[in-house]
TrEMBL record:
GO terms for cellular component: membrane. This is Protein DETOXIFICATION. It is a multi-pass membrane protein. GO terms for biological process: xenobiotic detoxification by transmembrane export across the plasma membrane. The keyword Transmembrane applies. The chain crosses the membrane at residues 51-73, 93-113, 134-157, 163-184, 196-219, 225-248, 269-289, 309-335, 347-369, 389-410, 422-446, 452-473.
């Protein structure tokens, strides 16, 4: 669209001109200074919301389904008994170590593929995908040993003996998931960088239905109990991986970005590992933070009820968190694509638009949590004492839900920019130097129990959110565009990536 025509369209667009506005690009609209500022914001918001929800909604479905598979396993375990629910909760929390690591390292693919796609360097996407898969698979090897000896480790952490034993058996059934994560998260980020999100949503939805059906048969027909739940969960994760890989290799839409296996993928693996390590630390310390709450709960008074109530609250929090992670993915794609394309104003606009939308949604979710505080636990268990404990924790849960509406989105912006190493330091400081120590003091020393631990957790998250808001507000987006260009040039020259 010519600039004169664009100016006229911006003044009073007709319905048929909305598509032309989108095609002209967000940057063109935001830089058209002859149009009033509020008018540009209004039209830019229309275009950005269209792009945002097209990315976020399928991504939300993917993450909700992935989490829903774990929650479904907990529900089945909860209806077997309180001890089985506690064992599944401990097992999932301990196994989240490798989940967080793989998800975090996979976000390096999100940064590099997103910026390469925005810069039209399509051939590099397949290389990044293969490098990441190789690195993540190698990193997963020592975790197979760690989880094989999970029983003595859980005992050393002070968890009850019976819960530790059942949890360790559950973990053994999850071990093959390690390598499914290595393939899944890299393929998922490869697709997201190209704004291809609906196929992953369909595949994940099919996997959830398969898991519910197979788990019901395994538990209620075959009587396999907790181990059966774990094995079915592993099978369904591998179903997702196989389906995604077949789609990438067979679909003609990836003929420019997937050109088959390449020897070049084995070059510079150490450099890629170092770049992805910052991503891993950033995501890991964030995911492990909430899971530590569950592990600490096993050391409190009456650990069975405390573990069950916290597991239920954390499951609800995780559902809310996955909605924000969908916007996290959308923010990462939008920011990385616009940086690669050299559009600083679009990056700025996209960043604050997605943050605002996610916050509004999380605020509505928090109201829903408080409105259903006395009844929501019965989805998981019929225990009246657990229901009372969950109701008492819901105000803390509501605050966490609101913070979850902002913090993950800002982390998505960080991933899109390649700030993972910096944010990793922020996360370690806020979560592990501030949040957890305060939580332990309140929970154990002052005997506030689970409420005290959760208060410390909220304090750490709030501090991290405020720091990321300030850093994002102070960012020079023109400099970030230049950094993105240099990073891609460095990779093309087979050098290590430029880190921030």
């Amino acid at each position: 669209m010519e600039r004169t025509d664009l100016r006229q369209t911006l003044v009073d667009p007709t319905d048929s001109e909305w598509k032309s506005l989108s095609d002209s690009g967000l940057e063109s609209i935001l830089t058209e200074t002859s149009i009033p500022y509020l008018r540009r914001v209004y039209l830019g918001a229309f275009i950005e919301m269209k792009l945002l929800f097209r990315l976020a909604l399928p991504a939300i479905l993917v993450y909700l389904v992935n989490v829903g598979m774990n929650i479904s396993a907990r529900i089945f375990a909860g209806h077997l008994g309180g001890q089985e629910l506690a064992a599944a909760s401990i097992g999932n929390s301990f196994f989240s170590l490798v989940y967080g690591l793989m998800l975090g390292m996979g976000s390096a693919v999100e940064t590099l593929c997103g910026q390469a796609y925005g810069a039209n360097r399509y051939d590099m996407l397949g290389i990044y995908l293969q490098k990441a898969t190789i690195v993540l698979a190698l990193v997963g090897l020592p975790f197979t040993v760690l989880y094989t000896f999970s029983y003595p480790i859980l005992l050393l952490l002070g968890e009850p003996k019976t819960v530790s034993y059942a949890g360790s058996l559950y973990i053994v059934g999850l071990i093959p998931q390690i390598f499914a994560f290595a393939l899944n998260f890299t393929a998922q980020k490869f697709l997201q960088a190209q704004s291809v999100v609906f196929p992953s949503a369909y595949i994940s939805g099919a996997a959830l239905l398969l898991q519910v059906l197979l788990t019901w048969i395994t538990v209620h027909v075959m009587g396999q109990g907790l181990m059966g739940i774990a094995f079915v969960l592993t099978i369904c994760w591998w179903f997702i991986v196989v389906a995604q890989c077949l789609y990438i290799t067979a679909s003609p839409r990836f003929r420019h970005t997937w050109t088959g296996l390449r020897w070049k993928s084995f070059q510079g693996l150490w450099g890629f590992f170092k770049f992805s390590a910052g991503s891993a630390v950033m995501i890991c310390v964030e995911l492990w933070y909430s899971q530590i709450l569950v592990l600490l709960a096993g050391l409190l008074k009456d650990p069975a009820i405390t573990l069950d109530s916290l597991a239920i609250c954390m499951s609800i929090s995780l559902i809310s968190f996955m909605v924000s992670v969908g916007f996290n993915a959308a923010a990462s794609v939008r920011v990385s694509n616009e940086l690669g394309a050299g559009n600083p104003k679009s990056v700025f606009f996209s960043t604050w638009m997605v943050t605002f939308v996610s916050f509004v949604i999380s605020f509505v979710e928090a109201i829903a949590v408080m409105a259903s505080r006395d009844h929501i636990s019965y989805i998981f268990t019929a225990d009246v004492n657990v229901a009372k404990a969950v109701s008492e924790l819901c105000p803390f849960l509501a605050v966490t839900v609101i913070l979850n509406g902002i913090q993950p989105v800002l982390s998505g912006v960080a991933v899109g920019c390649g700030w993972q190493t910096y944010v990793a330091y922020v996360n370690v400081g806020c979560y592990y130097i501030v949040g957890i120590p305060i939580g332990c003091i309140l929970g154990f020393t002052f005997d506030f129990q689970a409420k005290g631990i959760w208060t410390g957790m909220i304090g750490g998250t709030l501090m991290q959110t405020l720091i990321l808001l300030y850093v994002t507000y102070r960012t020079d987006w023109d400099k970030e565009v230049e950094k993105a260009r240099k990073r891609l040039d460095m990779w093309d020259e087979k050098k290590e990536p430029l880190e921030n």
